[in-house]
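Worked example 2:
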Amino acid sequence: MSDLILIHGGVIPFVCHIFLIFFGGFMSLSMIFNPNFVKGMGFESVDARFLGRGLGFSVLAIACVFIATLFQWGRFTSFFEIYAVLFLFTLFGFLNQLLMYLKVLKTHNDKPVPMANIIRPLIPLVVIIIRRLTSTNFQI
């Protein structure tokens, strides 16, 4: 266990990695199996529910890769690229929701954007930033 903590650059980056696994798993399973999850984001059609399932499976794949990098299985030994992809994904998701909340971008149904939709992508974004700032593996 101490080797895993050392590989990830300390206790806080290790805990952030574990948190992202659980958060990604929870969000992906919610998108896949909860039909009201996509409806809660303002998409009421059946087509949007199936799109949410595809997105859920994509997030589940990222969570599975995080598990593989946690234990260094196979050729999954570098987690920097995965963090970069997840950082950009959540950053663009946060900016999109924020711009729709501020009414810079139009929503698809002209309803106001709930604050929960802004906070969801912000959670892993903040965790990735904390992990980056506390890891001893990164050189500035």
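The chain has one domain: 2-133. The radius of gyration is 17 Å.
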